[in-house]
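[recover] target loaded
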């Protein structure tokens, strides 16, 4: 192994040390986003209540700025209507 190959090997090693964790993080983030986006369909999200169950009464819902504004959900991405519902509904304890 000559001096050039040794430096190249060290450079590659350093590059891998810096790039691989970043790549792994990006892939994990992408998978999480994709999984959450897919969950809207898988969990049969609808923008209307099902009986007396609705997102505003679900423990996975975070309300928007006003009671009628869209909020967010821990399992589905994007805006979530407080009057929505999905199969992951979990009654909020009072
Ligand atoms: S889990 Fe379902 S019911 Fe609960 S807040 Fe999210 S979308 Fe609404």
């Amino acid at each position: 192994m000559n001096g050039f190959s040794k430096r190249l090997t060290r450079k590659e090693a350093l590059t891998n040390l810096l790039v691989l964790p970043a790549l792994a993080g990006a892939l994990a983030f992408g998978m999480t986003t994709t999984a959450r986006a897919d969950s809207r369909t898988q969990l049969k999200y609808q923008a209307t209540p099902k009986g007396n169950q609705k997102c505003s009464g679900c423990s996975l819902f975070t309300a928007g700025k006003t009671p009628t504004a869209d909020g967010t959900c821990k399992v589905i991405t994007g805006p979530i209507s407080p009057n929505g519902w999905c199969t992951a509904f979990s009654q909020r304890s009072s």
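[recover] notes: The first strand starts at residue 61 and ends at 62.
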